[in-house]
Amino acid sequence: MPATAKDKPRVRPAATGGRTPPRRPRRGPTSPRKLYEQLRRAWDRPLTAYYVILGSALLITGLGLVMVYSASMIQALRFDLPGSYFFRKQLLAAAIGGVLLLVASRVPVKLHRALSYPMLAGTVFLMALVQVPGIGHEVNGNQNWISVGGPFQLQPSEFGKLALILWGADLLARKQDKHLLAQWKHMLVPLVPVTFMLLGLIMLGGDMGTAMILTAILFGLLWLAGAPTRLFAGVLGFAGVLGFVLIKTSDNRMARLDCILSTEMGPEGQCQQAVHGIYALASGGWFGSGLGASVEKWGQLPEPHNDFIFAITGEELGLAGTLSVLALFAALGYAGIRVAGRTEDPFVRYAAGGVTTWIMAQAVVNIGAVLGLLPIAGVPLPLFSYGGSALLPTMFAVGLLIAFARDDPAARAALAMRRPGTRWKTMRRRVTKRPSGER
């Protein structure tokens, strides 16, 4: 009778000495607590902030290029320009901004501090030059531009944000080293007067939106410096009264304030941009109408590739697209806060906190205006909207955050371990030398 498979003797593997290897325990489903612990450990790694800042900034910029091309095509054809006109200018600005990002991420922190004063002086000079007749140019009612040749224009106030952050961070860091920040006059002077000088130059051109962002940067620096509540409330109250007066004395600003939560355009179309922005978001649904399929960019929505590009994103990519953009900005902001919170260098803390305040405040103002929750301030969505003058300093600021994330001692050690040959040499040093006769 032939032997069956059940009767055949079992051959034990020789590699285990004839013993059957133990079975591996089956892994059950990962519990939410274990998943949370894994994510927390991953986030606590030294290079996490470095990769999050770099990845989120590049993704926002890349998606912004796609949406600028889609949103600006019809706008370019209306002005008898090639359909890719605005996209090519934005792509050139992104390429130059990428070089600036790389340079800023590799420059030592000491050099950033040394460049802060020349950058502030140059920015103030250019902002004053804007008000000279024949040199400054007016765009959409705001005279804040300088022509640099051909179709290219420069808005010095965008570079004023970066200059204020670097100069203010260096100023506060030096005063902290001398233990002077405990006195309110040293905390305010000369930071607040210089900021008000920049605000005055900006308001001469009528740019209320940039003035709001510059004020947010000032408050961010004061908060990081540990300003007491009374002092903080006093500066905030003064800025609020000044803003109220500036809004009350301008019919254009009052009209923008009246368009908050508006669902009707008004008898003369005052709220056309705000209402059609809501229409664009509402018609997008969950996943949008598809890239290039927007209806609002065909003339109904002014500035579809600039201030209201988030509305076109919602119309073409839907709620999924807008939430993705919000998630990328949230990741960038949280990583910036981590860099500012974990450093021991006061300059790095102030500069990283100032850059994070700038990008997050500008994103909130832009998206809040598109959603109809805030007045239309005319500020672009950072790294996303069309505009080289806004993109270049923002990418340089992202390079600053990357440089600060790399400057962390733990991050430097982790990056050093990844250099070619470092790991092998380190492992060889850890091996204990055996006696000559030992195998």
Structure description:
- The protein has 439 residues and is mainly α.
- Helix content is 64%, strand content 3%.
- It is built from 16 helices and three strands.
- A three-stranded antiparallel sheet has the order 1-2-3, covered by helices on one side.
- Strand 2 (142-147) and strand 3 form a beta hairpin.
- It starts with 31 loop residues before the first helix and ends in a 9-residue tail after the last helix.
- Residues 422-439 have low confidence and may be disordered.
Any idea what the radius of gyration is?
28 Å
* Percent in helix: 55-70%
Mean pLDDT across every amino acid position: 85
- Approximate strand percentage: under 5%
Topology summary:
Elements: H1 32-43, H2 48-78, H3 85-106, H4 109-129, E1 136-139, E2 142-147, E3 153-154, H5 156-177, H6 184-188, H7 191-204, H8 208-224, H9 229-248, H10 251-258, H11 272-284, H12 309-342, H13 346-370, H14 388-407, H15 409-417, H16 422-430
Antiparallel strand pairs: 1-2, 2-3
What characteristics describe this protein?
three-stranded antiparallel sheet; mainly alpha; 64% helix; 439 residues; single chain; 16 helices
Q: What is shown here, in short?
A:
With 439 residues, the protein is mostly helical. The chain has helices at 32-43, 48-78, 85-106, 109-129, 156-177, 184-188, 191-204, 208-224, 229-248, 251-258, 272-284, 309-342, 346-370, 388-407, 409-417, 422-430, and strands at 136-139, 142-147, 153-154.
